[in-house]
């Protein structure tokens, strides 16, 4: 069963994506560690961390794509799962500082010392164990998504309403984590990490290893997503996206399908956050900012939702642009980002990947002459979901008949 | 599978793009000294930090007009941290590793400083941080040119206690580290001074809080207990305008309940009509209204540089000026821009501040400052009603917090650490 | 010490003493009025304190204008001649004679500044001097001054004034001031002080509790119970009014939310566009107000008090026009793809923010509150600030107007027709593109109106809109998309709930609780408070 699923997943073009990232996971650290600086092909350490950060973002975008692109749930709160995973990792890293903090307290992190904590709050217990912390990285976002999704999907909160309450969720968490009384370091968050698994976070080899771990995690995420979307369940997910009510009337438990996708996606986002934190060296509540979650949506849209490679490309391209603009043309950064959103939604509804498909499709049409009807895009899916007849696409938007 | 080649090409292009990113700015000219400017030019903090970026450009231009440093021109490298703290760490790394700047001037918030701090430590570069902060930190690579709590909060409370006879205290702040720590220090200080615990009210609000009706009426109620009451405000920038508007509207006059603020300066006041606020106080180490020739010259030059007679100057700008001048002196004294040499050379150097005194870099990487208390005037300026007689040396570790009272910072031999424990006579951490 | 100070005053005044035209008695320099006023010019704060005390001690009416001017910050020193002058509008007056002074071209004026302590001293001094003034308003201020600075030495003066007083309001204030003074004076008999307590409780307004509490601190045993019962009475009264006051705070917060959200109720609620640029429309409305006021201040200073009223149509037109532009340029390509409008309008909001930041700079801009919106009034036990009051009224007016436009005009009819069944509407001859543009323009224009109101409570900065966008969406979703009444009820409910949670949970936790409650509420009613029924439901 599992091998079959694996086979089906790998049968697709996903195998190439996975292979590329596995190769990147090996080659980039090698280029960093083995080729001496100055020589052609050397990748500077800072670039390794930077690319590691992009790849962590790519996992997050892929996670969002799983729920949005494949299941039609636009979550404006995925940043929250990312940040929770990041906090779990951050808590582990804080506990590793030990007595090297400025106050030299062997147990309490610095911020707790000056906020007069006498002992560790219960939720910090056990976080000094790496594997327990990793369990939390998966468990906390997963549990939140499960509980949140269980109630939301059972009550049939859909569409815009769902988007807005996911936004409310991340906003509430943002405010909560800003509070110093929460025991998560308030606005300053968790920072000044020293060790991970006994080695220095800042060491070149650690950075290279973290990068490799991120690339491998990304490859695994692609594999998992590919397995899911190519399974029967994946087909039902797409059915839910395209016509939720119809799927329900056909006898599928739509809410459980959604819940599954949402929870898996949240776990992936949590893992992305955990990989992100040691590479950037800080986790603070601004990661919960609703604007960040919207930005993730943008990456996915720019790359092309409903594909596996799209969100990865989107996350990398947009963040490359951000890094480039904020150093060379700081004043123009927001103009460029804003224009990118508008341009993408107006002219590239299927993202960069869609553009490629278009160009490819045109070429193929010339040679093959035969053409199957293209699967509906998510944009059209939204209309279908509202009960519209797919036959009417391509004209002006329409009001929907009753179901 | 058919799409493979194109997709991988795309991906390769994306990754290659990130490699070339590093290649482009490395066209460093050897005859210049690069100075990094690390401030938010967009996002929520742009409101405060953009001016500081301009200040740095202004200072660098002035220094270049004087012939630069050691015969070399200074070249500013400006980046935008977009109020995004992980990005701040990334850009700090880029400034140091790729652009090879010799010193960085930047950050406003504590979280920004905290996020870039490990980078400066790892890559051994210099950061000059120009804003008042909560203290409880001293790092070898960072120079704190803003006020520590003993250079702002405590003198202000002393003033209110002695000159205004205040007996009841409202400590109102935004819920983040600077107000929390400052209020903790102040609370301990007030208790030590014999103020009863029920005469202290502490209140926290979220960032950008805009509905102050309840809190202001609570303050009025708290102030109606028959003892002279004052508000010590560590409310952060954006929330101040609505707060003061509500104070004005509910008729809280400075003669009845004065409000002393640590985060409200000329720049913040330029955003509104201060007529209802006349008499409320602020504690800083510099006011634009200070009448000295140095200050007059600075204001004139600044306004000429920025091209507007309406632009004000404020305390963090002076801090950047002092930090910059100290760095220039240290580089000239050391004869090199090498970080270790500058760190050794800078301690003990002094440069005139704009209020007629001298700013000295102390071994704990803080500086000496005068403390001024000003009352808000109807033109948005401050009138200095009180100032310390001597310069106050910045204290990295507060003496009023039990866990840090025995800590000292000294970055000169033989101690050479940021958290020297005077009881155990050893450094608190293994750094 | 005193001798030294007097000596210094003499020395300071010396050049003027030598002037032949000023035939002054030189033996008592401290009370020499012109010389003392002259000395103000160069005095530091401590010296000013002494001069004010000396001037007050003269008891002369002639010093009232100069002290008033000093307290109000209208007293200036002309640096070149050393003359001390009172500013009145754009003219400068000689402080004693009140005659206008012609300033030379080289005049260099600098304000003589005072601090809080001095302002208190001046108010107390002026109170004593103006208690017998001809103007009732002045007498009232004087009585209030006495109330604020009780001094047993003034009791005879107050008695005299009370005996001569004819105006009922002023009389009441004077009696309260006298009661306060007696209550605070240990020398008075307990019976007198007891009798003063109810007068203080009823007459001293908001300060009554302060005064009674401070009297309680040193009160003898016989007096204490009387004061305590008066305090208990006041506190009970305050508890009752406190709840109402909280409702008022909630309503006024709710009306701000309503203003911010009501435009969104059109663009998002009626049209289905997830308009993330809504906040920026609010921000642009605020900036329009700023520009309008700037123009008025420079060209028509007389109209300054009406600048907000003038800004209203301007803001509506500016943001409405921008809204129409956005609809024609971007939104119309995205109908039927609501989630994509989110992305496009979010991008747009970034562009608008950065544009404003590039043009006006990132710092706050200033909009002056008109006089009719400043200050507060006591309404029974409620303290109501005028600014908030007018915003509540304004929100109600905007809501009613919008309701009328939607339900009573041809355009409103067409809007509803187009959003309910576009094809049918089109078939009936309605120009749907035009109606779309108008609807979006209307929603944006109303956001602009909200911006005008928000200039009175919030920062005018490029980030203004961002602070309201999430709250606005919560209000619309909570109230039920597509229903204006839902938005009204939603906004007011959230406002009041927030204000009742705040005292118990604190501002931060209160806001978190509200968000959690909204999330839970949506689970119970996935379509909001006032869900649309019928065909339009399955969006």
From TrEMBL, chain A:
It holds the Pfam family BPD_transp_2. One of its GO terms (molecular function) is branched-chain amino acid transmembrane transporter activity. Keywords: Cell membrane, Membrane, Transmembrane, Transmembrane helix. Residues 366-403 are annotated as: Disordered. Its main location: membrane. The chain crosses the membrane at residues 14-35, 47-70, 76-94, 130-153, 160-178, 208-229, 256-277, 332-356. It is found in: Cell membrane. One of its GO terms (cellular component) is plasma membrane. PANTHER family: HIGH-AFFINITY BRANCHED-CHAIN AMINO ACID TRANSPORT SYSTEM PERMEASE (PTHR30482), SLR1201 PROTEIN (PTHR30482:SF4). This is Urea ABC transporter permease subunit UrtC.
TrEMBL record, chain B:
It comes from the Bacteria. InterPro entries: ABC_urea-bd_UrtA, Peripla_BP_I. Keywords: Signal. Gene3D superfamilies: 3.40.50.2300. Residues 1-28 form the signal peptide. CDD domains: PBP1_FmdD-like (cd06355). This is Urea ABC transporter substrate-binding protein. The gene is urtA.
From TrEMBL, chain C:
GO terms for molecular function: transmembrane transporter activity. One of its GO terms (cellular component) is plasma membrane. Its main location: membrane. Keywords: Amino-acid transport, Cell membrane, Membrane, Signal, Transmembrane, Transmembrane helix, Transport. It comes from the Bacteria. It is a multi-pass membrane protein. The chain crosses the membrane at residues 247-274, 281-300, 306-326, 389-413, 434-453, 473-497, 504-522. The keyword Cytoplasm does not apply. The keyword Glycoprotein does not apply. Residues 1-26 form the signal peptide. GO terms for biological process: amino acid transport. CDD domains: TM_PBP1_LivH_like. InterPro entries: ABC_transp_permease, ABC_UrtB_bac, BCAA_transport_permease. It is found in: Cell membrane. Belongs to the binding-protein-dependent transport system permease family. LivHM subfamily. This is Urea ABC transporter permease subunit UrtB. It comes from Devosia marina. The gene is urtB.
